[in-house]
Design brief:
Pfam families: HTH_1, LysR_substrate. Keywords: DNA-binding, Transcription, Transcription regulation. This is LysR family transcriptional regulator. GO terms for molecular function: DNA-binding transcription factor activity; sequence-specific DNA binding. This protein is α/β, with parallel strands linked by helices. It folds into 3 domains: 54 residues, Arc Repressor Mutant, subunit A (Orthogonal Bundle), CATH 1.10.10; 52 residues, Periplasmic binding protein-like II (D-Maltodextrin-Binding Protein, domain 2); 54 residues, no CATH class. 35% of the residues lie in helices and 22% in strands. The strands form 4 sheets. The chain has a 3-stranded parallel beta sheet with strand order 4-3-5, covered by helices on one side. It has a 3-stranded mixed beta sheet with strand order 7-6-10, with no helix packed on it. The chain is rod-shaped.
Length: 192
Amino acid sequence: SQIVRRIEERLGLRLLTRTTRSVVPTEAGEHLLSVLGPMLHDIDSAMASLSDLQNRPSGTIRITTVEHAAKTILLPAMRTFLKSHPEIDIQLTIDYGLTDVVSERFDAGVRLGGEMDKDMIAIRIGPDIPMAIVGSPDYFSRRSVPTSVSQLIDHQAINLYLPTSGTANRWRLIRGGREVRVRMEGQLLLNT
């Protein structure tokens, strides 16, 4: 009622004739209703479709991730998820850089370990992934097997290249509960 009065004041026209028993549109009110009626119906339909989204999720979820997380965690979980949510599509982008999730319009980013921008929030979605240092029999027929970090540094390594930092990833070694980070040298750099 107050909204209608404000509109009447703004237009300088009466839109409704009010009595103690009834409210009837004036000629100006009928004209305005005939013009705005279809628009009000469209607004009502749009609001109803938005409330449907609360009950039935739909749309595209964009995720940037590393290949290992996609293969071992995300893809196996997606089978069940997509069957349960037929109106949701998932777009996976395999990327080893520290993608700006917000500016690139991703809904989530999955990375191994603690690699992430400082203003991001992280939750664990999988177990620790044990890794091992290995070498081919041919390589070790020509070189001694390292027994310490200082001996390891003298060996050639195949390194993971991180596009964001522009350098090879440092190796994180843990022995006896003590962590050491080592930058290994090598002629071969891979981004996957």
